[in-house]
Design a protein that fits this description.
Blueprint lengths: L3 E2 L2 E12 L6 H9 L6 E8 L5 H6 L2 H7 L2 E7 L4 H8 L5 E5 L6 E2 L3 H11 L5 E10 L5 E2 L15 H5 L10 E4 H7 L13 H11 L4 E11 L11 H22 L4 H21 L3 H13 L5 H14 L2 H14 L4
Parallel strand pairs: 2-3, 2-5, 3-4, 7-10
Antiparallel strand pairs: 1-2, 5-9, 6-10, 7-8, 7-9
Helix pairs in contact: 8-9, 9-10, 10-11, 11-12
Length: 336
């Protein structure tokens, strides 16, 4: 007899994957799910209004999943973003465990089994993660270059390390217990933004629970030149992305009920450091100076560090050349 805990089927792993225009790569990911050594899997594919043959490609797998003894559901929606697509899939989660790999990545054959076995053997943990590797989509060869740091793998308190980019947020590496996840999101909806999805899924969970790391590369990340994450952004798009992330982190802070001043200051430092970088990139010196002052106020910079960054922003980054040198030329370098 199948036991259930708060409506979740014991041992079952729910795989929720958002996809948008993934016809060229989706089959590879679905094949990797079908090849899992673990016997209890349900696949929930949330299509974000694809305009290509993504849904038709997915429908080719309905019988394959049925023959394998796995559940397979395709959920369709109008195009919005990845977090909205995940929200379309979350109501259908029935498994004890939850993972959400990207549609262009792959799971190693024992990826699910090893993570489930860890959580069964260590019931005091509510989640676990593995390592990942990167591969070139065109050649299939592994790449030494990684987008994210691995960080200190012995650490289990990962909220700040994830937020501050000291460890990886790679979505397919993490496995969460569904009961705990839906205690955070009882309405089965994460905050919807054009950015994120992994921050929404992970940060509130990591704020509550420690997450150990299995020191094995159980998840493959495809490196595609045309992927959404590698598409160059215009200045307006990049600035909107920065705004969205700041608003998202404010939402997450509320979800986590972060009220202590040191944590609030740390979040303000995170925002200000990002603002400093984008201000320098687009030569907005006054904004860069303001960001440095906020970092000093909230404890992100010492007085000496703030002075050094102010010197960089005003002098090395070109403010003198742009603003003072023309005056100097006008006053003292007149042609005879």
């Amino acid at each position: 007899m199948i036991r259930e805990e708060k409506g979740f089927q014991e041992g079952l792993v729910s795989v929720v994957t958002p996809v948008y225009n993934g016809e060229s790569h989706l089959r590879r990911m679905l094949d990797s799910v079908l090849e899992q050594t673990y016997p209890q899997v349900e696949m929930i594919l949330a299509d974000d209004g694809s305009a290509d043959g993504t849904v038709a490609a997915a429908e080719e797998y309905l019988k394959k999943f049925s023959d394998r003894g796995y559940g397979f559901r395709i959920v369709k929606a109008n195009h919005k973003n990845a977090s909205a697509a995940i929200n379309r899939g979350l109501p259908f989660v029935t498994g004890e465990y939850l993972i959400w790999p990207d549609s262009d990545d792959v799971l190693e054959r024992d990826s699910i089994q090893k993570r489930v076995e860890f959580l069964k053997a260590r019931p005091e943990y509510q989640c676990v993660r593995s390592l990942s590797y990167y591969f070139d989509e065109a050649t299939g060869k592994r790449s030494e270059k990684a987008d994210e740091q691995r960080g200190e793998l012995e650490k289990e308190e990962l909220f700040w390390d994830i937020l501050e980019s000291r460890t990886f947020v790679c979505c397919g590496c993490y496995m969460l217990k569904s009961t705990r996840f839906f205690e955070i999101y009882p309405d089965r909806r994460i905050p919807e933004y054009d950015v994120g999805q992994n921050f929404q899924m992970l940060l509130p969970y990591m704020y509550r629970y420690g997450c150990p790391t299995i020191r094995e590369e159980l998840y493959g990340v495809a490196v595609r030149s045309g992927s959404h994450s590698r598409t160059p952004l215009t200045q307006a798009q990049e600035e909107k992305k920065y705004d969205d992330y700041e608003n998202l982190i404010d939402d997450i802070a509320k979800l986590c009920q972060i009220t202590d001043q040191s944590s609030k200051d740390r979040i303000e430092c995170w925002k200000s450091a990002r603002r400093y970088r984008i201000s320098l990139k687009y030569r907005r010196i006054k904004e860069a100076v303001g960001a440095v002052n906020r970092l000093r106020r909230y404890g992100g910079f010492s007085a000496g560090e703030a002075l050094k960054e102010l010197f960089w922003a005003c002098f090395v980054n070109g403010w003198v050349e742009e603003h003072l040198y023309p005056i100097y030329r006008k006053l003292f370098c007149r042609s005879s």
